[in-house]
């Protein structure tokens, strides 16, 4: 593994107003300064833009506290090749973290176009820019880290999910685009010797998260007195992973690039890796809802006498969903000495406290 010191390096983070991206930028400013960070986000309206704006304002505040570092934000689209090429030409990033993507399984069923634009064309533009970063003998990109997803495991029956498992049966277009990213990265790693690492994230949650995720959507509905639907009659398990754990994993992986080396045929062995980042302990969705409601009462988002039973409805499985996600994280532990450890209660407590402040309840 090639060790990379992030200090004084230029890091390009796409999706930097997103949930994981914004938290990563904050963590890098706090722990890796002096560092030069370039962020890109299209600020689309897939969910409430005011949350993205809040995240960006938190980054601005943090950047002001670290004047030894630089932070520059571009509003733009991954699918805009000219813009991506311009950013690479101007900033010459040493490390690229591609978190920009159209997320969500259900939305991909009704709006496939957004996924092809962002996740396929957008990622291709990043790969091409990485490839050309080595032109004219330049050092170029030392490590490309990109977001994949636990969705790639589809309906695999074997758990926990291992990166050694075959993942040829996606059950949503979103999953198919993420698996495609891994395949494209592998080809580019082989052809152009680009060190790349894909990270399969498992159900990320926390403060200022995505409103389309269950815990956030449930909270919004309960507050309005609406009924929440629990899919597969509550027989779903998810490997919920707190955002700080995800960010710590990403930060560590950024600093260890797959090594460039040649095989017996003299040709390069692709410097390519894929890891799971998950909590390695799936929680039943009913237990999850139970902890969520306790924490919402504790944070005074909901009244102490709230009648949850009358606001719960057990319904069948949704198209594109899977009954369980469960990460095998042994490779991450072995190579980076890291395993997510935040308990669901601690994570949901932080979310409930943030929610109360953000929505001024």
UniProtKB/TrEMBL annotation:
Keyword Glycosyltransferase in annotation: no
Entry annotated with the keyword Lyase: yes
Source taxon at top rank: Bacteria
GO MF term set: GDP-mannose 4,6-dehydratase activity
InterPro entries: NAD(P)-bd_dom, NAD(P)-bd_dom_sf
Pfam families: GDP_Man_Dehyd (PF16363)
Gene3D superfamilies from the UniProt entry: NAD(P)-binding Rossmann-like Domain, UDP-galactose 4-epimerase, domain 1
EC number: 4.2.1.47
Keywords: Lyase, NAD
Domain NAD(P)-binding intervals: 12-350
Leading EC class: lyase
Protein name as annotated: GDP-mannose 4,6-dehydratase
């Amino acid at each position: 593994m090639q060790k990379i010191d992030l200090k004084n390096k230029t890091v390009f983070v796409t999706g930097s107003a997103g949930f994981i991206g914004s938290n990563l930028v904050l963590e890098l400013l706090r722990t890796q300064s002096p560092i030069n960070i370039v962020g890109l986000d299209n600020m689309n309206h897939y969910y409430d833009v005011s949350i993205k704006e809040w995240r960006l304002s938190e980054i601005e505040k943090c950047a002001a506290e670290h004047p030894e570092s630089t932070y520059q934000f571009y509003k733009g689209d991954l699918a805009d090749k000219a813009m991506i090429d311009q950013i690479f030409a101007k900033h010459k990033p040493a490390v690229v973290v591609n978190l920009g993507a159209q997320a969500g399984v259900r939305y991909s069923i009704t709006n496939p176009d957004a996924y092809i634009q962002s996740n396929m064309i957008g990622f291709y533009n990043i790969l091409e820019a990485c490839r050309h970063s080595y032109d004219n003998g330049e050092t170029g990109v030392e490590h490309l880290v990109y977001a994949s997803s636990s969705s790639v495991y589809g309906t695999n029956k074997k758990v926990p999910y291992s990166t050694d498992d075959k993942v040829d049966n996606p059950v949503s277009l979103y999953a198919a685009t993420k698996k495609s990213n891994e395949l494209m990265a592998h080809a580019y790693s082989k052809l152009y010797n680009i060190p790349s690492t894909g990270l399969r994230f498992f159900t990320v949650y926390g403060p200022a998260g995505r409103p389309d995720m269950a815990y956030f959507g449930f909270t919004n509905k309960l507050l309005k007195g609406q009924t929440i639907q629990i899919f597969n009659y509550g027989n779903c398990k998810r490997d919920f992973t707190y955002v700080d754990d995800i960010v710590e994993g990403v930060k560590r992986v950024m600093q260890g690039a797959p090594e460039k080396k040649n095989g017996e045929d003299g040709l390069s062995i692709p410097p390519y890796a894929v890891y799971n980042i998950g909590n390695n302990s799936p929680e039943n969705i009913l237990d999850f809802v139970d902890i969520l409601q306790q924490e919402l009462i504790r944070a005074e988002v909901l009244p102490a006498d709230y009648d949850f039973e009358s606001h719960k409805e057990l319904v069948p499985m949704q198209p594109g969903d899977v009954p369980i996600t469960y990460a095998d994280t042994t490779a991450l532990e072995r190579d980076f000495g890291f395993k997510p450890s935040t308990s669901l209660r601690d994570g949901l407590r932080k979310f409930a406290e943030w929610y109360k402040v953000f929505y001024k309840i």
